[in-house]
Amino acid sequence: QGVLQEPGARWTQPGCQSCACQGGQVLCEAVSCSVSCSHPLPPPAGGCCPSCSGCLHEGVARAEGEVFSPSDGNCTVCLCLAGNISCISPECPPGSCPSSSPANCCSCQPARCSFRGHTYAHGAQFSLDGDECTTCICQGGEVECSFAPCPALDCPQHQRHLGPGQCCFTCQDPPAPAGCFVDDNGVEFPIGQIWSPGDPCELCICQADGSVSCKRTDCLETCPYPIRIPGQCCPDCSAGCTYMGRIFYNNETFPSILDPCLSCICLVR
């Protein structure tokens, strides 16, 4: 290439070709690199062989003697030394973790629970065999069981019911009333019964829902001397007359008590 080379001379051509002048001929071959480290740096600009004066780890160049942690962390510490990477990790004692987030960087799993022939992972919830009313949980190798919580009921004790397979009591609807209680003595009238509570002009009925409905009777027919029949609400103007405490029938004549010369007659009008 226009340059005179002495016999036995050696040089490097671009493209990492190693050449030598032997007996008037130029002999070239690819540069052979002997790399004595595990993580060498790429060849420098214009160079052909990797360098062990630093380290290349996960695509990142590390200087000689640099201490670093890998990208996945886990408390591992690495050292670049003569192109080689040496890493150390903390020694974790066997057994369960002291907490869910240990401060010593040990990656461990909480202890499992062995209970009645079954193995459960930490935090697993399960029910006892055939008992859906009891809930258990595995906590750090120990099983804790408790009864299922039941809601508070607002019904009286005699209306509470525990059905087959149920864990908690439920409220039952009260039975349909069979009659009406009308006083403090426990007197009960059957549904549909009509009675007078003491006033002949008032009638009450026992309704289907157990309530009592009462209504008064209005007397529309009036006359000056009606007959009042015991137990009857309205006075009777058609049967006769009541005069001075005596009862006279229709068309009956009688002398006046106040004046014997006066004759009176009972007329229905």
Short summary:
With about 270 residues, the chain is an all-beta fold. The chain has strands spanning about 10-15, 15-20, 25-30, 55, 60-65, 65-70, 75-80, 85-90, 115, 120, 125-130, 130-140, 140-145, 160, 170, 180, 190, 195, 200-205, 210-215, 240-245, 245-250, 255, 265.
**Low-confidence parts:** none
Computed CA radius of gyration, to the nearest angstrom: 58 Å
- Shape descriptor reads rod-shaped
Structural class: mainly beta
Keywords: Glycoprotein, Secreted, Signal
InterPro entries: vWF_C/EGF_Fibrillin (IPR052080), VWF_dom (IPR001007)
Protein name: VWCE protein
GO biological process, one term: cellular response to virus
Notes on the structure:
The protein has 269 residues and is mainly β. It has five domains: 1-32, Ribbon (Complement Module, domain 1); 40-90, no CATH class; 115-147, no CATH class; 180-216, Complement Module, domain 1 (Ribbon), CATH 2.10.70; 223-268, no CATH class. It contains no helices and 24 strands. It has strands at 10-13, 17-22, 25-30, 54-57, 60-63, 67-68, 77-81, 84-88, 113-115, 118-120, 125-128, 131-139, 142-147, 160-161, 170-171, 179-181, 188-190, 194-195, 202-206, 212-216, 240-243, 246-249, 253-255, 263-265. The strands form ten sheets. Strands 1-2-3 form a three-stranded antiparallel sheet, with no helix packed on it. The protein has a three-stranded antiparallel sheet with strand order 6-7-8, with no helix packed on it. β23 and β24 (263-265) form a beta hairpin. The mean pLDDT is 82.
